[in-house]
Amino acid sequence: MEFGDMLKAIRKERGLSQDELASILGTTKQVISRYETKQRVPRLSVVADYAEKLGVPLALLSGQQTQAPQDAFPSGGVRRVPIIGSVACGEPIYKPGDGTDFATIEEDIPCDFALIAQGDSMTGDRIHSGDLVFIRRQDSVRDGEIAAVALDDELTLKRVRRILAPGGRVAFTQLLPSNPRYAPITIGGAEETRNVSILGKAVAVRFMI
Known about the structure:
209 residues, 434 Repressor (Amino-terminal Domain), Umud Fragment, subunit A, 2 domains, ten-stranded mixed beta sheet, 5 helices, 33% strand, elongated
């Protein structure tokens, strides 16, 4: 489900009119109608604000969590995960944290740590500088998924796309930004000398600024 679909589903589940939902969220019926008919897409900051007011997980309302709970979209328990540093949304960088910072996340979102986004290369996916990106630790992702990728000692957040050679083997991989101002980063191939590894998949984002 997309944001508009999920917003409408929550409203219907709770027996609210568009006027009543607008009152809860501090907006207008017209805005709610545009969201539900997908004529308008909110920034992640708005989604985060609505999720808090409705008491639902951010990943659910933003459409990143594809299956909704069956019992009226309740907010479950929360747990803490470490914020281990910053990840580049632009040229690869990495600034490790000191291990003392934590972020809270809903228990039903499978993640192992969080990173602070820096830069604007992923704004097309509503990830802005300063946002918290929650990562599930895994060493591979599917094509099109957003991953935290280490290039030597640097770290970047991008969508992954594999380019196949004749015969079906992977010729090289591209790390794709969602801001057209930035070019893809190409990795792999016979002349690749960098140590490249996927740290994990981005499973949720929280607006912080």
